[in-house]
Amino acid sequence: MTASYASIRPLLWLVSLAIFMQMLDSTIVNTALPAMARSLGESPLQMQSVVFSYALAVATFIPASGWIADRFGTRRTFLVAIILFTLGSLACALAQSLHQLVAARVLQGIGGAMLLPVGRLAVMRSVPREDFLRAMSFIAIPALIGPLIGPTLGGWLVEVASWHWVFLINLPIGVIGYFVAMKVMPDHYAAHRSRFDLRGYLMLAFGMVVLSLALDGISGMGTPHALVMLMTVAGLAALVGYWLHAANSTAPLFSLALFRVPSYRIGILGNLFSRIGSSAMPLLIPLLLQVGMGMSPMNAGLMMIPVAAAGMVAKRLAVKLVERFGYRRVLMTNTVLVGIAMASFALMSPDQPLGWRLLQLALFGAVNSLQFTVMNTVTLRDLDVGFASAGNSLLSMVMMLAAGFGAAAAGSLLAAFAPLESHGATAALHATFLCVGAITLTSTLIFWQLPDTGPEPKQIEEVAE
């Protein structure tokens, strides 16, 4: 049963706090990675598993979060999510080795996988229909603010305290959120309980995890080549197995009927391949600024502000651009611009004027944000009501999976170009930027398949990143 908008304001603030905590944590870590590496005795160019493990855990557990909330109630599920995320943050701060830190990030990711979708679900089932867009816009604000302040806050905490505080900062937020949730989180259940597609979920989760580990294993972290090949084949076999299972199941986790919608099919695949390169950048840019150019963590974090700020501005331009040129031309042109912007970081050097450096970061932030906004819109725009929930969940899973792939790909490329370090500290990083730019450019082949039709601009305004 829905309530008045005024009565659900405390719920909106609670969900906003949860989203802020999750989005902050996804960006605050990046500027602290070199400090973590020094503390744990690891190479700063081989710390991608800290980012990769969190993103993979979130991607793996997102498909189950909706069913868990329907089965056990939004209130209980949300409280458990806060506990897991907070305990995971504490375990990260107490980690004494990279393996311990990665394990703690997985625990944190399991909690994070339920925080955002369950919070959104509670809002969707509580807010009056006429206030739905207003409420969703309100809780989308933290998703913009978190990445804006995360890198700078992370750099500042490293300098004034230690890297442990990028995780310890979650503890008071988690405790406050738990007690507020006890009072304001409604306890919604599904009207009709459906059977969970456990077989399909296990195949899909196994495929995602094993393929991600295979990609991460290429980075030279001691994984034998034979094991990498075995994991790759096993992962692909699991995904094919899920495809066959979904074709014959009456209630699959994600119906293959979703892929009969051309815009969704193209959009979901374009999201996956385009985001691999984009997801490598939040890891690579702080490394370039700190390891390659000798900046302090605080200054490296400040340099990320133009990326986030320009991204917020660019989202407003999406409607006008698509209205004038159409989805296909905007995505194909902008994908090329994103790839070039990524590759341009190979030209960044310590003697580069500060103004040019800030402009380069801002331009990358603008085209990258525009890419996300238009990709998400074209993916979801043609889904009917019956497929909207499953389609959105699959998109969320693919976004996090691509984030994990991006971090793993960055680590693998840095390991492959490690011999270039004899030519300078930034040589391996510069070569990696060229490669992630090329990876992004390949997704133009996917967006090329879009029909050259006009837009529905209002839809873009309603799609949140």
Automatic annotation (TrEMBL):
Residues 11-455 form the Major facilitator superfamily (MFS) profile domain. The chain crosses the membrane at residues 49-69, 78-96, 102-123, 135-157, 163-181, 201-220, 226-245, 266-288, 300-318, 330-348, 354-374, 394-415, 427-448. It is found in: Cell membrane. SUPFAM superfamilies: MFS general substrate transporter. The gene is mdtD. It comes from Stenotrophomonas lacuserhaii. One of its GO terms (molecular function) is transmembrane transporter activity. Keywords: Cell membrane, Membrane, Transmembrane, Transmembrane helix, Transport. The keyword Nucleotide-binding does not apply. The keyword tRNA processing does not apply. Coiled coil: none annotated. This is Multidrug transporter subunit MdtD. It is a multi-pass membrane protein. Signal peptide: none annotated.
